[in-house]
Amino acid sequence: MGAQPAVIVLAAGRGSRFLGADHKLAQRLGSATVFATTLRHAVATQLPVVVVTTQVFADVARRSVAARDVIVLPEVGTPGQEALGMGYSISSGVSAIPDAGGWLILPGDMPMVRSDTMLEVARELADHAVVFAQHKGVRGHPVGFSAELYSELVTLRGDEGARRLVARYPAIGVEVDDPGVLIDVDTEADLESVRLAQQGGTVPQQRL
């Protein structure tokens, strides 16, 4: 049996669209925070988990995963660090666990993605280069990349992320009964919707 895919949780962005006093990842969501909830679901898969974050959230990450699996980057916008961004975060996370059987990219601001959804995407990486979760036909996260794409993932830079790889290689969608794959916390309104959903209210409107 080959190596398991790893979950790469990305939490190094500025979250500039969130206008609250604190960073969106630090916002309360039930008994935890947005970030801690995302991490809890990732760890519950029992897949390897690597967290790419900044110093502000490093301690939170270390409470969920081993210190060696927390990659601390300078904050985006740091002088002399022009290459930082989502692409660089992905590259850093993948480089930290090069022998994984693929990598699932999960933004840290998506606390509603279920553990079983991540596992469904991970299973498909045995047969496909690029796999993404989708709900009612709409593409969401996580997005998984097979081990054969390692050399391309580790050269990513800037804010583009991995879009060009998704466009270049055959990608399949895994249909899941999990609206959380479409829900990120970008704004205060997003946060309130997620809080309502967590309390058993209406699931937030899907993001297109």
Describe this structure in words.
It is a single chain. With 208 residues, the protein is α/β, with parallel strands linked by helices. The chain has helices at 34-43, 55-62, 86-96, 115-124, 150-153, 163-168, 188-198, and strands at residues 6-11, 28-29, 32-33, 49-53, 70-72, 103-107, 130-135, 138-145, 171-175. Strands 5-4-1-6-8-7-9 form a 7-stranded mixed β-sheet, sandwiched between helices. A hairpin with a 2-residue loop joins strand 2 (28-29) and strand 3 (32-33). The longest helix has 11 residues, at 86-96. The protein is globular. The relative contact order is 0.19. The mean pLDDT is 88.
Please provide the count of β strands: 9
Shape: globular
- Could you tell me the radius of gyration in angstroms? 16 Å
Bin the helical content.
25-40%
- The strands making up the biggest β-sheet line up spatially as 5-4-1-6-8-7-9
Total helical elements: 7
Strand content: 15-25%
Instruction: Measure the end-to-end span.
Output: 37 Å
How does the helix and strand content classify structurally?
alpha/beta
Main pleated-sheet profile: 7 strands, mixed
Uncertain stretches of 5 or more adjacent residues: none
Q: Provide the succession of SSEs.
A: EEEHEHEHEHEEHHEH
What is the residue-mean pLDDT, rounded to a whole number? 88
